[in-house]
Design a protein that fits this description.
The chain has 299 residues and is α/β, with parallel strands linked by helices. The protein contains 13 helices and eight strands.
Length: 299
């Protein structure tokens, strides 16, 4: 199996020491087993996924993503840019596509970048790690790496919004994307293809501004997983993971529910299935422990 190299954009939430640093840990373990090398973009910056839409303006927001692309082209030439954060991937890919479609915007962005000694060519493909796994690696190769099948674990695949629209994963339905279900089955666990909340929004930043609305949305996501007999939920998005995990206590208090549903990343599942330790799979970063995965990792 040939080594694959990518220019890696960790993003703010998934970087070391941040709220989703366990995501980064499990991704690194997963990539080691798949012989994937992630070359971090030097001096990368925030993609402006949230605050950039407030009052900063279109050009400054897109220029932040352009700077990351330009740095990647300079330091990791010829490599596809890969993000693990759904928002980072969405922002960077949107910027790249808009530069292709709007030559004046592209020129203005390069004028801004020139002040920092950078030039954007905009010829690097932008991928989410899920695309790398599905399109570049493939399910067969992933399955060949499984040492500890996740037998007896029933997992609901929660795709969320940002890895689904507007771009989505090539060949997948917007209403019923199946790649997480296929991945779960590839790792030896039981998928729930009929899980009806797999593309439900988690409320995003409403968790801060209008928590009651966000928590109502999260309640539906978790409730549907329980209704389908899930032992845990898997997601590709740091914000989805955070919102659906850390607010369960508040939802229980608000609605009288008794939720205690582990929410894990696909990379956590893969690391465990590939035979890595609980620490390598970042299971110690769970707010709600994924005991069934811990038990498999300990075998």
């Amino acid at each position: 199996m040939a080594n694959r190299e990518y220019s890696f954009y960790p993003g703010c939430s998934s970087q070391k020491g941040a709220t989703s640093s366990n995501y980064l840990t499990s991704v690194q373990s997963m990539c080691e087993e798949l012989d994937i090398t992630l070359n971090e973009i030097p001096d990368w910056n925030c993609c402006a996924a949230s605050i950039g839409y407030g009052s900063g303006g279109v050009l400054p927001r897109l220029t932040l993503s352009a700077r990351n692309i330009a740095l990647s082209e300079e330091h990791n030439p010829g490599q596809d840019i890969v993000a693990t954060c759904a928002a980072c991937w969405l922002s960077t890919r949107e910027a790249s596509e808009r530069f292709d479609q709007d030559k004046q915007l592209f020129a203005e962005t390069n004028e801004a970048l020139a002040e920092a000694g950078l030039t954007l060519k905009n010829d690097a493909p932008i991928k989410h790690m899920a695309e790398v796994l599905i399109q570049d690696v493939g399910y067969d190769e992933i399955q060949s790496k499984v040492k500890k099948p996740l037998e007896g674990v029933k997992i609901a695949g929660y795709v969320g919004c940002q890895t689904n629209r507007p771009f989505g994963i090539a060949g997948e339905s917007y209403e019923n994307p199946k790649y997480l279900d296929k991945l779960v089955e590839t790792l030896g666990a039981d998928a729930i293809p009929e899980y009806e909340k797999k593309v439900q929004c988690c409320g995003g930043a409403l968790a801060f501004s209008e928590p009651e609305k966000s928590q109502e949305m999260i309640k539906g996501i978790i409730e549907a997983a329980y209704d389908n007999g899930a032992d845990m939920i898997v997601t590709p998005c740091p914000l989805c993971q955070a919102n659906t995990e850390i607010y369960q206590d508040q939802i229980n208090e608000r609605y009288g529910t008794k939720f205690n549903m582990p929410i894990v990343y696909y990379s956590t599942l893969m690391s465990v299935a590939f035979g890595r330790s609980a620490k390598d799979a970042a299971l110690d970063g769970q707010v709600i422990p994924a005991k069934k995965l811990e038990d498999i990792a300990a075998k």
